[in-house]
Design goal:
8-stranded mixed beta sheet; Cytidine Deaminase, domain 2; 3 helices; globular; 37% strand; metal-binding; alpha/beta; single chain; JAMM/MPN+_dom; zinc; metalloprotease
Length: 129
């Protein structure tokens, strides 16, 4: 299976990461298991946002409520690695929910991953309009 990701969603992730080069940015991926239509940038409330991320719980709750009311579903999250690579860290693996899609932006690169049993597998994707 190849995951489809809208160009607008990918562009928004890169722009978010580029706007904050010294700290991790984060947000939610919205769509279905086969297509990510949009992203919802969220405030990073981690104690040390220079090297970790935690999505604002209020934003997460609001997104779950919106999905229950017929809005797009949450299929995962994105974040940046300002001083690293677009691959998941050990910290990422410890926080991952099984089956969730993770997109990591680093140094102008995008990595797309699926969380599987406290680890990640790469996900093939296509950029779509």
């Amino acid at each position: 299976m190849v995951l489809e990701i809208s160009s607008a969603a990918l562009d928004a992730i890169v722009a978010d990461a580029n706007a904050s080069p010294a700290r991790e940015v984060c947000g939610l991926l919205l769509g279905t298991r086969v297509r990510i239509e949009a992203v919802l940038p969220c405030r990073n409330v981690a104690e040390n946002p220079a090297d970790s991320f935690e999505i604002d719980p209020q934003a997460l709750i609001a997104a779950h409520r919106a999905a229950r009311d017929g809005g797009p579903g949450i299929v995962g999250c994105y974040h940046s690695h300002p001083n690293g690579s677009a691959t998941p860290s050990a910290r990422d693996a410890a926080a991952a929910e099984n089956g969730a899609i993770w997109i990591i932006a680093a140094g102008g690169e995008i990595g797309v991953w699926r969380a599987v049993s406290a680890a990640f597998e790469p996900v093939a994707y296509e950029r779509r309009r």
